[in-house]
């Protein structure tokens, strides 16, 4: 007679995995709001992650919008009202939990792998990718909502692919125009005086970005966890998210943010361009404006794509500034591969989990995920990047330069 | 195909508002920096060898006014995020921002 029922164990694993994903979401995205402020020394590395973490925490609580139907954007495992569809309710919701478990595991593994490479990839693409892969494996291709109907943007095409292509382009243009204007207007101002002034502007715009990240991203995990609770009948209200879920997700994303994904911060702050604080402010304003406008219009986009696009644009907008296209190209490649790669891992995880079945399957998936995480973390220790060296010259021996020949990738994704 | 049209339709609106706000804000801030530099004089501006430009108090006043405006815009952005999270929408009634429940 065991103390914990298999059903409870399965649910608990899904909740823990979802929170782990939220945590990776946090450290993966610290760079979006803070990379340029750290690079231009508007904020100290520690000050930046602290501010960003606090605003993410506040943001996560601010959002009372019900995000229970978050998976409806790309897969068909929920009814429009948020309740799970009957097809996945076998074994007391076990079928649905396995899909969530495998999908989250896929998203986490891809998130950590791209962190190891120091590449800013979209956490929402990773989450959607993982869930899509696990759904295809579990329910077949019909389980995926590929495209929306008519002019309503929906499905993989409308909610993921098209915004992923459009939003970086918009951000590049806006930041480029902003940067051109800034340098034109401040002509004749002493460069040191300029730098100091714009650092203040950067702090303001970086705060905007951090807060909006908290309100948007923590919600997704809240929705996934609540879906798991609904599937097992532990929670029945589709109009509310349990308070403890909200607290747990807020704390998970904030502590992830505080940890800081230094490898990614370094790539975005130092790798793409040599950024000055006027460019930094132009880039952050561009990101904030594009993200807030999109959320007002209901256009779903990835913060990562916008933030990177803006930094690139601020490099293009400055005369004589050099953009490292090699780094930009690698990022672009990571964007294109995030969804399919996370989907592949999610699908493989589902097959493995299904092979063992039930709670045992979930335990196996969990152990595999933790093993993968440990493996990648150990690899990162070879050339650690942290507060101490995040701002070192890009030309120096750094992770993002040697990451091409890190052989770990193939082994882990298999 | 309709999806692409819908995405492009959203895209040009975002681009338009994005340029106004996202490029406008740093441009505004730049005016503030420039006014402050002119107001401060001395080493704040680029100048010929040996002739330190005098300070202009007016420049400082303009600079502070512009910065206040920037702070206002940032606060508007913050309140938008907060209101959006709490289920309110931002509308502009004859140019004045107002929050209405969704």
Which secondary structure elements does this structure contain, and how are they paired or packed?
The complex is a heterodimer of chains A (414) and B (102).
Chain A: H1 6-39, H2 45-62, H3 90-116, H4 123-139, H5 155-185, H6 191-232, H7 243-259, H8 262-271, H9 277-297, H10 303-316, H11 325-356, H12 358-380, H13 399-402, H14 408-413
Helix pairs in contact in A: 1-2, 1-3, 1-6, 1-7, 1-8, 1-10, 1-12, 2-6, 2-7, 3-4, 3-6, 3-11, 3-12, 4-11, 5-9, 5-10, 6-7, 6-9, 9-10, 11-12
Chain B: H1 2-40, H2 57-85, E1 88-93, E2 96-101
Antiparallel strand pairs in B: 1-2
Helix pairs in contact in B: 1-2
Briefly, what is this?
By secondary structure, chain A is mostly helical. Chain A has helices at 6-39, 45-62, 90-116, 123-139, 155-185, 191-232, 243-259, 262-271, 277-297, 303-316, 325-356, 358-380, 399-402, 408-413. Chain B has a two-stranded antiparallel sheet with strand order 1-2.
Task: Point out poorly predicted stretches of chain A.
Answer: 396-414
Question: How helix-rich are the residues of chain A, as a percent range?
Answer: over 70%
Tell me about the largest β-sheet of chain B.
2 strands, antiparallel
Question: What's the oligomerization state?
Answer: heterodimer
Q: How many DSSP-defined strands of chain B? A: 2
